[in-house]
Amino acid sequence: MESTKVLDAKGLACPMPIVKTKKAMNELEAGQVLEIHATDKGAKNDLAAWAKSGGHELLHTEEGDVFKFWIKKG
């Protein structure tokens, strides 16, 4: 998935990754993709639940201790 915008949330603890994600998603148009890099393990469940509730598409991978997410705005 090609990113429209990248959000670096590494080193941030809950709830900041989701707070920053919501703010960044508000700046995107439907169909655009936000890429998020986070180190907080809780971000995996938080972002999955938030994306589902908002009707967004989510993909994620793990590279070492960094979680990478791609959210396509619904």
Q: Which percent band covers the strand fraction?
A: 25-35%
Unreliable segments (pLDDT under 50, ≥5 consecutive)? none
**CATH topology grouping:** Translation Initiation Factor IF3
Cα-atom radius of gyration: 11 Å
Itemize the secondary structure elements and their pairings.
Layout: E1 5-9, H1 16-26, E2 33-38, H2 42-54, E3 57-63, E4 66-72
Parallel strand pairs: 1-2
Antiparallel strand pairs: 2-4, 3-4
Give a structural overview.
There is one protein chain. This protein is an alpha+beta fold and 74 residues long. The chain has one domain (5-72): Translation Initiation Factor IF3, CATH 3.30.110. Helices cover 32% and strands 34% of the residues. The protein has 2 helices and 4 strands, in the order E-H-E-H-E-E. It has helices spanning 16-26, 42-54, and strands at residues 5-9, 33-38, 57-63, 66-72. The protein has a 4-stranded mixed β-sheet, with helices on one face. Helix 1 (16-26) links the parallel strand 1 and strand 2. The longest helix has 13 residues, at 42-54. The chain starts with a strand and ends with a strand. The model has no long low-confidence stretch (mean pLDDT 96). Pfam families: TusA. This is TusA-related sulfurtransferase. GO terms for molecular function: transferase activity. InterPro entries: TusA-like, TusA-like_sf. Residues 7-31 form the UPF0033 domain.
